[in-house]
Amino acid sequence: MVFQPYKHWHVEAVDAATRTGCTNFNKIEFLAALELVQFQTLKQSTILSAWNQTGLIPWNLDIVVDQICAQVAAQPRTPSPPITLPLGLVETPTTSVALRDLAMQLIDDEKLDLNNGTIRKFLKGSLKQAEAGNLALNHLS
Predict the structure, then answer these.
(1) pTM
(2) Which of 21, 23, 35, 77 has its CA 20 to 30 A from that of 121?
């Protein structure tokens, strides 16, 4: 891509500055070398090659999908902690009353972590959706 040649020319600029007596390659030195680094890096052939390698121009879906899959596979995955539900839970609640009872059981369960509020928000949202569904059914009938 473009960053590898950019890094190469940046290292060359730091090396050249060091060889000429610069002992501290600070912001001023960097800004002085930046134009030359950009000129050496951002050539038409480099830019076109980078677009071609990404599969975007010309369009090549296989390259794009392969790169996305490689990035996803490279990301470390940490397993989610198991959520322990109350032992009395056997069936999915089918009414809003059963859903409300289950939500209250879950909120009262000390094993669930409700500090971040995510589960609490989910439970409240589920109850609101169930109640809205009941209201809609009542209005339809």
Answers:
(1) 0.43
(2) 77
Q: Which residue has the tokens 């839970």?
A: 89
Query: Residue 122 has which token pair?
Result: 């989910």
What is the rounded distance in angstroms from the CA atom of residue 27 to the CA atom of residue 31? 6
Of 74, 53, 65, the closest CA to residue 3 belongs to 53
* Rounded average pLDDT per 10-residue block, the chain, 141 residues: 88 91 88 92 88 81 83 76 57 76 72 66 78 82 78
Query: What residue type is 96 in one-letter code?
Result: S
Q: Are 63 and 55 in contact (CB under 8 A)?
A: yes
DSSP string, the chain: --HHHHHHHHHHHHHHHHHTT-S---HHHHHHHHHHHHHHH--HHHHHHHHHHHTTTTT-HHHHHHHHHHHHHHS--PPPPPPPPPTT--S---SHHHHHHHHHHHHH-TTS--SSSHHHHHHHHHHHHHHHHHHHHHHH-
Start-to-end CA span in the chain (Å)? 63
Q: How far apart are the C-alpha atoms of 118 and 115, rounded to whole Å?
A: 8
